[in-house]
User: Which sequence fits this backbone?
């Protein structure tokens, strides 16, 4: 799965689990909602389980459900669970240190990216899965879904 879409799909998964309440939801059911392969869902569920956000049960009545209240899970928790890199990676190779730009661009970008990362994390920390669920329910009613 594309790293850039992990976060969105993980939020989708957790919101679906919040909507379903305490009922176990199968990876096939989640995959249908996301419109992707169940293998991708199981991989993300593994990351979410490792982070303590979901619990999974195997067997015919198995599936996944939230490990705690949707109010207790922030989007920052989800981001930390599924992202394995910074917001904007830097150059793949060291720029020319003898160049006016190459010699200092990494330092400049590191400062800007660190500030952007911190602000993004603060915003994500202020939104819970319960908030996302409420917004989804509201918009669904507006669209008669």
Assistant:
């Amino acid at each position: 799965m594309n790293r850039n879409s992990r976060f969105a799909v993980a939020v989708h998964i957790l919101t679906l689990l919040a909507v379903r309440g305490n009922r176990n939801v199968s990876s096939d059911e989640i995959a249908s909602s996301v419109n992707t392969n169940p293998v991708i869902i199981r991989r993300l569920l593994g990351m979410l389980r490792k982070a303590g956000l979901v619990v999974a049960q195997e067997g015919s009545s198995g599936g996944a459900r939230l490990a705690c209240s949707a109010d207790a899970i922030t989007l920052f928790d989800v981001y930390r669970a599924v992202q394995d890199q910074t917001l904007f990676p830097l150059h793949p190779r060291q720029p020319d240190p003898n160049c006016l730009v190459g010699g200092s661009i990494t330092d400049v970008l590191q400062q800007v990216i660190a500030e952007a990362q911190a602000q993004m994390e603060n915003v994500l920390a202020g939104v819970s899965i319960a908030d996302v669920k409420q917004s989804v329910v509201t918009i669904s009613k507006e669209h008669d879904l």
User: Anything to note?
Assistant: The longest strand covers residues 54-57.
